[in-house]
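**User:** My hope is that you can spare some time for a protein that puzzles me. As I understand it, each token names a local backbone shape. I would be glad if you read both lines and explained how they fit together. The protein I mean follows directly.
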Amino acid sequence: MDIKSKSSHKWGVLIIILAVLGAAAATVKLYPYMTNKARDYEAYRTSRIKEKIRDYSDLSTQVMNFSYVIWHQQKQEEAGRIMTYSETYLPGLDEKLRELQRTKQAQQLQGEPAAAGNETGKTGDGNDSDYSSYAEELGSGPYDVDYYNDLRNQMNKAGNDWENYYRRYSSNLFYRVVGANGETLRSNVNRPDECFGKPLSDKEREFVFTVQFSSSGSMKVTDFKGDDSDWFTFLQAMNRYEFYDPLVSRTDESYPYSGVRFLGPRNMTVQFRCFPDKVTNQALNMDGKAGMDYQSYIDSSYYPVIGSICFFLLVLALALPAVKRFEIGRSALCRLSFEPLSCMGAVWMAIMGSGGLPASMIAGTMDGRLGEELLKAGLLPVSAKAMAVLINILFWSVVYGFFYWGITCYRAIFSLGFWRYCKERTWLGRFLCFSQRWLVKMFNVFDETDWESRSTRMIGKAVIANFMILTLISCLWFWGIGALIIYSVVLFFLIQKYWGQMQEKYNRLLEGINSMAEGNLDIEIDEDLGVFNSFKKQLARIQTGFKKAVAQEVKSEHTKSELITNVSHDLKTPLTAIITYVNLLKQEHITDEERAAYIQVLDQKAMRLKVLIEDLFEVSKASCGTVSLHPENVDIISLLKQVRFELADKIEESGIEFRFHLPEERVILYLDSQKTYRIFENLMVNIIKYGMPGTRAYVQVFRDQEGSVVISMRNVSAEELKVSPEELSERFVRGDASRNTEGSGLGLAIARGFVEAQEGSMDIEVEDDLFRVVIRWKEKRKEPEFQEFEKWADEERMEDEGSKEEPVRAETEQEKDTINLRTVTEYKPLD
């Protein structure tokens, strides 16, 4: 990522931060609006509740609660003792429990298993035996001591709840129990006759009604006094309790068949007087107006406001990554896997969806509770107010930040595509892909086998994998047979599939081999041949070898053709001259001077023919490696100077100025002096023949870093070199394509052959018209002979220095070089 893209990314991140902070600030700014909406909702809710009061469901419930408590008090007076609600409303339950205990003890004494069910017989009322028998016929199971104890506890708990309601509503719900003659048996007011005899109130709604319980336990409402429009609604609410058993809603489905029945009030008449609005308001814990809490925010404006802001962030999170220069959503933070991201999203949805925590934050801020807590912490009023705003902004920044980040992560579903997202960004997808690769690798083990390595490891993996699968199948017991069948079918189709693929790859390889056998060496096999990939590689090597062999054969045939042409041309020229001058010599009337001139020409042409044939023999020996060498310690510096001396006339005639950069000390190499002389001679003659007159040629000898002696010769060619450096060292190749210059075209070929025969290397470099030859030899010599040679040279030098006679001086530099070369080449080791 370059500097510009990094800067763009920073701008994108800044836009996101500002958007989240702006959304948080907008939410806090909308707190007053949300509060007003919550108040409006509470006002509406209060009016609806007041309308709902007219259904009288709460009043009817409290009437029945009073009736149950009144009947329980009456039964205690009749019994003359304190009774539990289970004794009042579940008669016979205690007797049944005692009988079950006696039966259990008797069976334990006799060694028999204790009976857990109900015994037949009459306990309680006369219907107990019928209920028990019916329960056993339905197969509901036995009812043990624990079941009846739990039933008794449920009944006593219900009675306690009735008593609590009785005490709570006694100040608003008045009653009196009326006897058979109209007398008052009990009441929760001091003067019941006066209370129930006065007329109804004109200011508030007031009811007076009578509830009668028959001998069978049914309930009905009579003598209703109040607004006639409320009579039908109140009657509907009371009709729910006509035949009502409170234990049905507190127990399970087995209760009706347990042999124990709830017996409610009977043969009892109760007259009630109340203000229904007060009873209902008290039930709702209200005093005429609603108290506003966090639920009011949730039910009014919370979801629209938060939903609108989240929708804005949703659009921004989906649209902003589309601006590629921002590079949003490409960091590792936005590549979280689907499963942990969904878990965090579920937590976020639970918090924000329920609305309890954020709505409590809003309510606490608007009613001042948050500020009060901050004041208690010791903050100043101004600081507390600012801190409360800051806390709210931070809270909503975190909420919206998580929302924006989650949407950015989920956006990859659209950018990557559904299937790629499943494979790359879900744990399940990764596991399935891993399982797929593992199964494919397991069943494709032979297709990817290196047949040149040992097969023990591969076979071991296959056997272990199959063992693990069969082990898992065997753990299924009987169902393992079905799993084994499925495994066998799947294995059959997989083997059939891969067998078919191997057949296709084998046929493709066979087609390639047949095509090569028919002479098509350019065929390419690009397909993955699996197990046959090694064969494909070997086939490619064979194909390359065949191509090289064919190319070499074509080149050899071309060389042979050129060899015949060039040899014919080069031998034909002197041979034609020889024949011509022989015919001239056969003439009768030629003078002695003409005969001498003809013989001289014949001698020159014959020598030329001899040189060509010798060169041909030399290059043939060099190419076949049959050159006979006579190596000895040779000073190549002196050898180069001798070549320069021998070619001095030709160098002067060529017009090329030779510059020699030779070291002053000797450079001794273990070489064949004659072959080395021929190398230098051929190279310098090549410069003389094909160099541009008036230019300079450079001959240099030095040692490189690898310890080799380097002989470099470079010059400027007279003609444009259209031949590659590789072709110049071939046989019968000349710098001039017209072959007008004197020579056989074997000079460079002979030089290369002699250099390589002496374990050296010769490189030819051509750059435009610049021609350069570089010869390298490892510096080595035969030490014993060299040491004797050095000893002899030192003695000769000492004798020359001690001699009183004038040393013989060479007249020219060329003569001096000849003496030095003769000293090197004619030296024989001492015995």
Q: What stands out?
A: Residues 114-141, 285-291, 737-741, 800-831 have pLDDT under 50 and may be disordered. Residues 533-585 form the longest helix (53 residues). The chain has 29 helices and twelve strands. The radius of gyration is 61 Å.
